[in-house]
Amino acid sequence: MTDLPNTPLAWVNGSDAPEKSAIDLGFMALTDCASVVVAATQGFAQPYGLTLNLKRQSSWAGLRDKLVSGELDAAHSLYGLIYAVHLGIGGTNPCDMAVLMGLNQNGQSINLSRELQNLKVTSPETLDRHVHQSRARLTFAQTFPTGTHAMWLYYWLASQGIHPLQDVDSVVVPPPQMVAHLQAGRIDGFCVGEPWSASAVQQDQGFTLATSQAIWPDHPEKVLGCTRAFVEQYPNTARVLVMAILEASRFIEQSPENRRSTAQLLSAADYLNAPLDCIEPRLLGDYADGLGNRWQDPHALRFHHHGAVNLPYLSDGMWFMTQFRRWGLLREDPDYLGVARHVQQLELYREAATALGIAAWGQDMRSSQLIDGKVWDGSEPAAYARSFRLHAMNGTPPLVAQR
Fold first, then answer.
1. Angle (nearest 5°) at CA 191 between 60 and 322
2. DSSP letter (8 states) at residue 401
3. Rounded distance, CA 321 to CA 337, Å?
4. pLDDT confidence of residue 92
5. CB atoms near residue 135 (< 10 Å)
6. By the 8 A CB rule, do 21 and 52 touch?
7. Residues 402/172, Cβ–Cβ less than 8 Å
8. How far apart are the first and last CA of the chain?
9. 3-class DSSP state for residue 11?
């Protein structure tokens, strides 16, 4: 495409008008669905001739199934969910999938129970000792077997010397149910997105031991995902959908007031159905861990950051595949770069960003250092997957209890 229109109406009136005027857009009750909700409710899609019908989902498995069946056109989705479906792991047949853009970075947390606090298990070191010395086996919850929360939980535990598949048990719990499971004593800890970690602290049902941004500063998190068939059948619709959500992402970060109004919007029953005081502080980077510590997090939840959040970097998608390989979800190395190039819709994203005057970021890869000191830059992914002391590459894929 050459002459990109500069106004929304040019998209509506010209040959680049969306093929579908209304799409069904799935989301989960998490703070990081913010840009999707803002785009749909605050008038960001209508100028492009698009209506976004929000569809709240009760579980990631349900969202996955509706994406694949076409009941949902696109969705606020876990990065790892899209890649698992594409690769045919995690309880589904392979289906060509697409990542249209990144929706956010950072903003997830690992919480432990008050029972563990009473046992003075309040640090990585004391948790390590407890796991290896206690006869009682701990159970941790995450939100989806191949999702980001499973990968953050596994990575963090392993970085502390705890094998996530051998030393502890792992179960799947939908995000809004985490606090209730913790309160009932069914789990000893969890990894989940906000506002549910903050909610556990507010209700005195647990404390935050680690944030995901402490594991990987500015890590990839949720994406705008869909099937590859949707992109191929409705390329203009996909493009203007990205444009609308990009504009909403930019709006949220334009001022603290916009973040506060976004928190207010999200607290409504139709979206998160959670108290404002569980949503707003951490959306603003104001953290309290329930142990008496409070801080302003320099890597709090980000939605745009001049477009750096939204570019679907090839290396981000590849990282999740290295972890699938590390933990035995993939028995063999995939074509890491080839798969990422197929899934990540870089060209479409860059067309949308350029039309809005947002930096399209020429690099396809980025480099980051994680909590264990390892650097991930997208190079030599197979060697990277094999470089970890703790792994599950020689056994059968782990069985994760479903709830």
1. 75
2. B
3. 10
4. 84
5. 4
6. no
7. yes
8. 46
9. helix
Task: Tell me what pLDDT residue 242 has.
Answer: 98
Structural domains in the chain, sorted by start: 22-105+219-283+303-311+329-363 (3.40.190.10), 108-218 (3.40.190.10)
**Dihedral class, residue 263 (left if φ above 0, else alpha if ψ from -120 to 50, else beta):** alpha
Distance CA 89, CA 27 (A): 22
- For residue 298, give the 3-state DSSP assignment: coil
Q: Is the dihedral of CA 142, 146, 152, 156 positive or negative?
A: positive
Residue where the block lists tokens 């969705």: 75
**Residue 36 corresponds to which tokens in the numbers above?**
């999707």
8 Å CB contact between 179 and 82? no
16 sits in the region (left: phi over 0; alpha: psi -120 to 50; else beta) called alpha
Which pTM was predicted?
0.94
Are 142 and 172 in contact, with CB atoms under 8 Å apart?
A: yes
368: three-class secondary structure by DSSP = strand
Q: How many CB atoms lie within 10 A of CB 57?
A: 21
Find, among 74, 110, 16, 364, the residue nearest to 227 by Cα: 74
Per-residue b/e over 7-32, b at no fewer than 16 CB within 10 Å? ebeebbeeebbbebeebbbbbbbbbb
Residues in the chain: 403
Residues of the chain with pLDDT under 50: 1-7, 9-12, 395-403
